[in-house]
Each structure stands twice: as structure tokens, then as C-alpha cells.
């Protein structure tokens, strides 16, 4: 049946404007920290409406939407300050369980992801094994019906508020290093797990170190075959290649930054500085409008079954830099007034909640845009290889 996309957009818009609680939209609109406290009730609202998993097949509780509908959904939610859905369960491990999990694993784990009851994090990166993930050293040895896991994961986003971690571990050193990796699902309340925060310059608590000391994990929590975890891990990372096609959050941020510049630098005294920042925003908008066109092309390619080629890497590379440029303009607008009052690295300080301080935090946070989700250096390598060959 042919989809009326304009009618669908109106339906999603009406839902976003009437069903997303004002207190949740306010957190998004003011660029405050998104956490489980915000994400979970929103996921419950979406799930009750039948929209809990836009990218899942209907037989597993998803919407069965096509790529264009999913793109419209994400775009409209961003335009209306509704939070993006928490990705680790819905867009990462959920599709892996659907594709490679046993019926028992699907019945055990998918309902909790859909309802928001179970919260997940990703145990991939390790000290010395970030971009070169195949060099991971966290080891798992099998003893009967259990694996005994020892090692350390780092930069583990949201581990401190998660129930489960999907993680890659080394079960063999004898084969090629990619072939000795296994994927396990580990409850984070298991004896032997220690989670320690990594404090970042924005003053928020995002990431953690996770230490595993003789952690027992049932073999039933293994995804697929032993030694095939590299395949499942790559599937996970490649599953959502259209994420960069949604430029709506960046455009929303740009418009708010434009308003900030006008308010913060009002009057004749600041005319020259205001004009300079407005020019930088105009250039950023041109970049984002170009990315918007590329995003539409990426969605069309998926709809038509055409290969995406360079598009995901080009979108990630360009939009991550533009996000930083816009944040730099905001920082230049408020920095003289607010930067000296920014909270200390431990989150304390008498002016930690100064009005407008979120613009400083946002600037600090945006430094990571060119690192996570495939660093700019990695994206440039991908683009170069596709253009000129390996």
C-alpha cells in the first residue's frame, strides 16, 4: 500500500506536540543533559502508542515503517524538541538480537527494550582498543555453562544507569584476531563488575570505565556462535547508517544560536561582533542545507535499494564539524559573561547553575562530535579508500 508521507508527517507532528510532556521538551530545548530519567518515560509513551521501535519489524513489536517514514519520524521529533530515542537498545543490540539471537533471547530481551524497562550500554572500547577494536583484550574463558570474563572497558556511555551491557570479549588468541571475538550480554549487577565515572570537560556524567573481575556470564547470554562476535559487532555498527541524514537537530540548534547572538549582543555597541557571528552562522547554515540535501538523497537511495557509498561518511564528517562551528559561535556570544563561571570538573561551584551556562556546556560537549560514531580521521580514510582504492 502506498504511503501518504505528508499525512504521516502531520500525524507525527500532532503526536509530538500533544503527547511529549512539556517538562521533557524543555530539557531538550535548553540543551540540558539527557538521561534515563528523561528517556525512559518518553519511551514508555511511544511504546504505548505502538511507536516504540520505528526500525523494527512488526513481528517483534516494531512499526514496520519504511526508511522514509523513519526519517520523517526522527526529523519531526527533533523539530518539536522531543528527545531522540535511546539508541543502545533500540538501534544497536535490539536489531542484533532480532537478526542473530535465539527465540529464547528474543523473548527475554526485546520486550524490555521496547517498554524501556531494560537499559543497555555498549562494551566495545578498551584502553588501547578504540579505533582498532579488533585489538581488544577483555578475555572470556568457558567453564561448563558459563563464561568467566576478566578485563576492562572504557568510554562506556551510560553504564552508570544501565541494566545490561552488550560487549565483545576475546575467547581465542589462536586464530586471526577478528575471529577470536565473541559477543556476550552481561547484566551489570553481576558480582565482579565495578563502574567508575570518567569526568569530561562539559561537567556532565556520560562515560565510564567498567572493570570485570571473574564475572560469570551464562553461555545462554552469548549472541550467535563463539568466535563470530566480530560479524555481529560490524552488523551493529552498520545497522543505522542513516543517522546522519537527520539534520533537523542541527538546524534547530542553529536557529536558537542565531536568537542567542541577537539577544546577547544587542545594540550598537556590539554591532561589529554581532555581524561577524551572524556571518559565521550563515556559512554554517549553508553547510547544513547541503547536508540536508545529501540526507534526502541517502534516504532515497535506501528506499530504492541503491548502495549508500560515501554518503554516510560524508554526512558524519560534515555535520559533526558544523555542529562544532555553531557551538563556537554560541560560545563567542556568551563566553565573556559565562565562561569564567563554568562549573569545575567535579560539577561543583557556586555558579554551576548560572542562567545560560548550558551554552558553555554545549560547547564543551560538542568537542566529542568529531570523535564518537567514527572519528573524522576514520571517515576521511573511508572516503579516500572508496574514491582512490585501498
From TrEMBL:
Its cofactor is FAD. Residues 227-387 form the Acyl-CoA dehydrogenase/oxidase C-terminal domain. Keywords: FAD, Flavoprotein, Oxidoreductase. Residues 121-215 form the Acyl-CoA oxidase/dehydrogenase middle domain. Residues 5-117 form the Acyl-CoA dehydrogenase/oxidase N-terminal domain. It holds the Pfam family Acyl-CoA_dh_N. Transmembrane segments: none annotated. Belongs to the acyl-CoA dehydrogenase family. This is Acyl-CoA dehydrogenase.
Amino acid at each position: 500500500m502506498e504511503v501518504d508521507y505528508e499525512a504521516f508527517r502531520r500525524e507525527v507532528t500532532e503526536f509530538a506536540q500533544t503527547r511529549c510532556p512539556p517538562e521533557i521538551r524543555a530539557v531538550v530545548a535548553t540543551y540540558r543533559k539527557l538521561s534515563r530519567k528523561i528517556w525512559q518515560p518518553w519511551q514508555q509513551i511511544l511504546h504505548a502508542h505502538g511507536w516504540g521501535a520505528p526500525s523494527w519489524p512488526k513481528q517483534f513489536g516494531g512499526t514496520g515503517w519504511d526508511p522514509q517514514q523513519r526519517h520523517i519520524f526522527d526529523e519531526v521529533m527533533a523539530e518539536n524538541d522531543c528527545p531522540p530515542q535511546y539508541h543502545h537498545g533500540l538501534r544497536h543490540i535490539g536489531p542484533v538480537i532480532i537478526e542473530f539471537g535465539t527465540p529464547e533471547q528474543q523473548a527475554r530481551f526485546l520486550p524490555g527494550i521496547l517498554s524501556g524497562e531494560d537499559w543497555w550500554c555498549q562494551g566495545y572500547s578498551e584502553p588501547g582498543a578504540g579505533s582498532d577494536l579488533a585489538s581488544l583484550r577483555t578475555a572470556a574463558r568457558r567453564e561448563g555453562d558459563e563464561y568467566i570474563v576478566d578485563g576492562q572497558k572504557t568510554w562506556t556511555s551510560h553504564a552508570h544507569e544501565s541494566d545490561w551491557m552488550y560487549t565483545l570479549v576475546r575467547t581465542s588468541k589462536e586464530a586471526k584476531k577478528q575471529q577470536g571475538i565473541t559477543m556476550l550480554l552481561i547484566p551489570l549487577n553481576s558480582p565482579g563488575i565495578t563502574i567508575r565515572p570518567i569526568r569530561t570537560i562539559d561537567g556532565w556524567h556520560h562515560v565510564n570505565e567498567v572493570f570485570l573481575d571473574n564475572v560469570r556470564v551464562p553461555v545462554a547470554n552469548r549472541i550467535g556462535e563463539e568466535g563470530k562476535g566480530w560479524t555481529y559487532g560490524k552488523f551493529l555498527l552498520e545497522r543505522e547508517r542513516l543517522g546522519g541524514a537527520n539534520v533537523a537537530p542541527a538546524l534547530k540548534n542553529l536557529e536558537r544560536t542565531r536568537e542567542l547572538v541577537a539577544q546577547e549582543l544587542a545594540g550598537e555597541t556590539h554591532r561589529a561582533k554581532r555581524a561577524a557571528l551572524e556571518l559565521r552562522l550563515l556559512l554554517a547554515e549553508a553547510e547544513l542545507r547541503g547536508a540536508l540535501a545529501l540526507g534526502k538523497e541517502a534516504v532515497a537511495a535506501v528506499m530504492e535499494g541503491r548502495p549508500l557509498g560515501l554518503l554516510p561518511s560524508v554526512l558524519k564528517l560534515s555535520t559533526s564539524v558544523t555542529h562544532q562551528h555553531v557551538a563556537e559561535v554560541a560560545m563567542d556570544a556568551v563566553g565573556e559573561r559565562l565562561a569564567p563561571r563554568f562549573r569545575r570538573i567535579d560539577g561543583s561551584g557556586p555558579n554551576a547553575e548560572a542562567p545560560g551556562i548550558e551554552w558553555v556546556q554545549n560547547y564543551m560537549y560538542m568537542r566529542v562530535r568529531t570523535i564518537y560514531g567514527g572519528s573524522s580521521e576514520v571517515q576521511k580514510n573511508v572516503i579516500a579508500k572508496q574514491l582512490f582504492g585501498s
